[in-house]
Amino acid sequence: MARRLQIAVLGSSKAICTKHAYKLAEQVGEEIAKIKAITVTGGGHGVMEAAMKGAKRRGGLTLGILPWEKMEHYNKYCDVIVATGIGFSRDAINLNSCDGAIIVGGGAGTLNEASYAYIEDIPIVAVTTSGGMAKQLSGIYFDKRKTEKVGEAKSAKEAIKKLLSEIKKKKIESKRPGIKKRKMEY
Fold first, then answer.
1. Does residue 9 have a pLDDT over 60?
2. What is the pLDDT of residue 180?
3. Model pLDDT for residues 55-96, shown as the tens digit of each residue
4. Taking Cα atoms as reference points, which of 152, 155, 128, 131 lies closest to residue 17?
5. Which of 106, 172, 173, 184 has the fewest CB atoms within 10 Å, i.e. the most exposed one?
């Protein structure tokens, strides 16, 4: 049985999310659901909520990894909730639970998540038209090691296409111990 891809959507919290970024995140969620992948977010509002809303609209499955210790603090589009109780250190869990990530808008928290993805060599694509960190980080390497260049896309559809290409290149397999070479669905 093949494991479904898990794609994180990183981006603006409700406090800094523009209407344009929200709409783009909905489209990203829809595109993730179309390929039968799981949408992974921090479970909050803003871009996180929008991506999950889009995924649900297309019948997708969503996973919200919350920074809080209580499961009642989440957006209404979460199918599966993990209440970590570890604050924003949960970013490591978010990224370790995905095969790749898409950035939509974003601020300081998004920069933290993207940095973690870079360190772990997780493919990242930024939707540049969403502004924020997505625009600032697109096309760059974080440091001289050049482990992972942040991909650039102008639309949700292009972002998914580029991310899938990067995931396939890396031949990402399950990171869970004891599971060997499970076939990935694309």
1. yes
2. 43
3. 999 999 999 999 998 888 799 999 999 999 999 999 999 999
4. 131
5. 173
Provide the pLDDT for residue 71: 83
How far is C-alpha 48 from the chain's CA centre? 9
| Domains present along the chain, CATH in parentheses | 6-170 (3.40.50.450)
Give mean pLDDT, residues 144-160. Answer: 95
Tokens of 86: 């570890």
pLDDT value of residue 39: 99
Q: How far apart are CA 110 and CA 3, in angstroms?
A: 27
CA distance 15 to 107: 10
Point out which residues pair with 101 in neighbouring strands: 8, 124
Q: Tell me the sheet residues that pair with 66.
A: 83
Cα-based angle 7, 9, 10 (whole degrees, multiple of 5): 135
Its pTM stands at: 0.91
Spatial separation of the C-alpha atoms in residues 87 and 112, rounded to whole Å: 13
